[in-house]
Every structure is written in C-alpha cells, then in structure tokens.
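Hi F.,

I've been meaning to write this up properly since the lab meeting, where we talked about keeping a consistent format for the predictions we share between groups. The idea is simple: the sequence comes first, exactly as it goes in, then the structure tokens exactly as they come out, then a line or two of notes. No screenshots and no reformatting. I'm using this chain as the first example so we have something concrete to point to.
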Amino acid sequence: MSKHVISLSDFLDGLPPAEQAGDILNLISFNIQVGIQTAGYHHYLTRSWQHMLPHKQRVPTLDRIADILQHFDIAALQEADGGSWRSGFINQVEHLAQQANFPHWYQQTNRDIKPIAKHSNGLLSRLEPSQVEYHKLPGLLPGRGAMVMRLGTTDPIVIIVLHLALGTKTQAEQLAYIHSLVADARHVIIMGDLNNHAEHLLTKTPLADINFQSVDPLLHTFPSWQPRSGLDHILVSESLQVNKVAVLNAPISDHLPIAMQIELPKGIII
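Output, unedited:
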C-alpha cells in the first residue's frame, strides 16, 4: 500500500474533533458498490450476481461502512441502492445514516430498474443544510445525477455529490453543467467518484475555470486491493484550508474511501 493509504485511526490522530471547533469539517467520499465486498478482479465475475440478487452479507458490510462514516460530518456515497430487491428493500443511504447517527440524509435515485435495483447517490450530514437540490446530468445514457447542498445562506459552502460517467467527452459535458451551478459560489466542495485523475479534471475540463486546490496525484483509490488509480476525489476551493487528506485503508468495496479535514474561513456561519 502507498504511504498515502492510512488507517482511519491514523487519519484521526492529532486532528481536533469537529464538535470542538465549529469551523472544522471532516469529509469522506465512498463508492460503496451496493455493499458488495470485492478483493480481486475475479470477484467481478464470481460476485456479479450480487448486483441483481439479495445477499445475507450485505447488511453486515453496510454496518462496517457505517463504523467508518460515524467519524465524519459530511459523507458522500456513490453506488448505493435506494431500496430494491437486491438490497432486501433496504434504502442503503437511510440505513447508513441511522447506523452512523447522521440526522440529515438525502438520496438521489439516478437509475430505477424496478423492482431489482435503484442505483443511487447519497449524502449524509450532521449539519442542517439551507438548501438541497437534485440535478440530472447530461449524457447519451440516462442514470447520472448530482446533489447540491448549501450550508449557510450568506456566502454559503456549496457541496456537490456526484458519480461521473466513464467517457471523457461526457464527463466534460457533465462538469460544464456543474460549472454552471457553482459559477457564482466562492466556497465549493465536489465529492465523489469522478472516474478520472485529478490532473485531467483540474486542467482539461470546465473545472479548470474554478479555483480548486491542486490534488496529490498519489491519492489512489482504485482498485481497493491494489490501488493504482485516483478516481475518487474531494475537490475544494482555494478559500478552504485543508488540514489533512488521505485514502483510508478500508478495502470493503472495490474503491477505497477518501477522507479530508478542512477548516472554514473565519466569519463563515453554517
């Protein structure tokens, strides 16, 4: 494992807990692969049936994920199920919110294959947002969306949760749409599985027009058993101070989660 992949305890070590400082937020983004444990490429074949059918191990896997999420203030989830046959009709976003004691949770179903699957994004928050919006993203195939949460009403923190398409052309179209949503915002956080490397996203897409901080190219999240690609990101505006960022050694899904602690500018009230 890379030195950038660390344990949850190592990430939290030395960081002041957010509840002791109102200007600090702990963030995590996690592609949870609908609660399927994946530890090698062969599991894409041998466990592929779990994408369509229920499995008794799915809830215990979700509870392991909740044990991680409980240490954070904002959690962005991708590849969650909104409550269908394969998940035992459990809304996985709601379940994780309850298990990790998040008072506010939001779920966006982007592809509803009734009754088998409800492909969804999720957003969990300990802070009550001033606004939450749901947007469909452009693309040749339907099924991609973004959630936009605003914290505060004056000079708000704008947090976007999304799971981008695979193709770079479609990604550019989707990020152009995201750019239009945050063009007037000063404090922006984008969290999710962006299916591309940070250098490309920040220099060769519409995100280049936003003053995001540079991202360490060694923050690899995929595949979880031997991470060599940085596909999952937390991108933050230059106005927000990053105290710490790392990939967590939690090989539960086929992606590792990425975590960050940020410090908000003085005077921001959320």
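Notes:
The chain has a mean pLDDT of 93.
Helices lie at 8-12, 43-46, 58-69, 92-99, 168-182, 198-203.

If this format works for you, I'll send the rest the same way.

G.
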